[in-house]
Amino acid sequence: MILTGPEITAATADGRLRITPFDRAQVNPNSYNVRLGSTLLTYTAPVLDAHRPNPTHRIEIDTEGYVLKPGQLYLGHTIEEVGSDTLVPLLFGRSSVGRLGLFVEITAPIGDIGFHGQWTLMLSPIRPLRVYAGMKIGQIIFFVAVGPITPYAGKYQASTGPQPSAYWRDLPALEAVAP
């Protein structure tokens, strides 16, 4: 079951869902709008390596906005910290942003029960696009979980700002199954 807008508001009020800051104007019929934070990261290495940390370049979006360029992956973040110990969140780009040619969260929309923090956004433009800190960039829907819950306790817990991949932190487990 997907929570409706009124139920998102109720779940925020009774503590089943945490959205900080919460603004009723960002509640939709069955989702909650999230806004783009002021920091972006880009990877600087010509070849990314899943087995090592990859260097990044930090970009601050000023009042004039920032032009995203095609062929570049940008890691952004939500202003809002969103999480729940009982509901399953999924984040998608807003359709109005998609109509501008910006892909948001196309490979990893699902959040884990028990994660609380700002969400890192994977942003990929198909043509140059000026974006602004504070613009509504995505929307989160919430599903009711059925069955026992094991809360998330992973490497991205309590994230603030965009987080580069920490896939390399999983190496001991990966090496054990490598051929």
Automatic annotation (TrEMBL):
User: Is Hydrolase set as a keyword in this record?
Assistant: yes
Enzyme class, UniProt record, top EC level = hydrolase
| Cited Gene3D superfamilies | 2.70.40.10
State which Enzyme Commission number(s) the record gives: 3.5.4.13
Q: What does the UniProt keyword field contain? A: Hydrolase, Nucleotide metabolism
- Note the InterPro entries from the entry: dCTP_deaminase (IPR011962), dUTPase-like_sf (IPR036157), dUTPase_trimeric (IPR033704)
The Swiss-Prot or TrEMBL record annotates one GO molecular function as:
dCTP deaminase activity
Q: What is this protein identified as? A: dCTP deaminase
The scientific name of the source species is Streptomyces siderophoricus
